[in-house]
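Bench notes, afternoon.
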Amino acid sequence: LRGVDINPTLTKSWSMLERLFQMTGDARNAAAAAERIASLKDLRPEVVRAGSMFSDGDLPAAENILRAYLRTSSDDVEALRLLARIQHQRDVLDESESLLEAALEVKPNYFAARLDYVRVLIDRQKYLRAREETDNLLRLEPSNRAYLSLYAAACVGLGEYEPAIALYRELLAASPASADLHVSLGHTLKAVGRKKEATESYRMAAAARPSFGDAWWSLAN
């Protein structure tokens, strides 16, 4: 995706999702898709350009555009979220957290930003706060797999391994080819001394994604 093409392309994709949700009677997700379409149509050109550069991996250029833009539009939640994602990728976690908090202060129901916020909290080892945030998300969407996976990760961080193991197994029952879930389960099993089961999980991850370095590294160790 290059230049301003990112805006109509994403809008078209979300329009298709909205129609699909409407056809299946999923009113909540249809409304969320409609809201996303409206926000994409309102994106400022600076944010569109920065988003295209971010997609291309040109983080410094995207960051420069966003910082200049935010000096005059400090409450633009899309710009704040995108800059936070850039800083997350760069492992500048304190600023990423602050940017997402600013975005959520402007728009508390921006669930994509809140999901990013939970990821940053987990990477900052703020596990209790992460679980509280994920709890709130799960009240709205109890079967959301991204939320459930992050909830399990927060439980692991808090040392509550058995609930996390049960949750990872539940998620894997629906997605047995998920290499990431197999590795997460393996790490959790290893933490409670169930090394044979952990090894099997790592092998399943390597089989699901042969190029997955984390799986092979975990097996080697």
